[in-house]
Amino acid sequence: MLLASFVLTEACLFFRLDKDKGSGPFVEPPPLLKYLAYNTQHTRSKTKVEDDLFSWILASAAVAAKRTTLPQFATLKSKLPAGLPAELKKDPRVDNSEHVAVFNQIAGPAFLGDPTNFGLLAQFILEAEHAAWSAFEENRGNVARFQKLLAHYTALLT
User: Residue 137: is its pLDDT beyond 90?
Assistant: First the structure.
């Protein structure tokens, strides 16, 4: 009962989330990543991509997707812009220049502006195992737990 109460409280907060903060100034998250945007809004910036955790996560995911050899991500890999680095070596909390540069590469209409491509990246963020992408695991774990609870309670209540 306590878990159900907690989940319903979180769901109510999520649906009441501040669209201005949670949506971000740089890209509107696809439905699969709305909770990630909500979960990272304490480190979102309206004016500077350099201070926007959601943007860093997208950049990190794109670089990891470029590296992966898993067949389920082959379409995503083929759609990524050319010239992405093989890896991001710097911790973005200390020096976010690599993450910002990659975000600027993927932020255009050809990739994040295309709902299909953004959806493929969202699937990677939700499904990639640790071996394929080991960054931002706390944030990704929060999204995974939310998706499982959402599916469970949707099935339970419908």
Answer: no
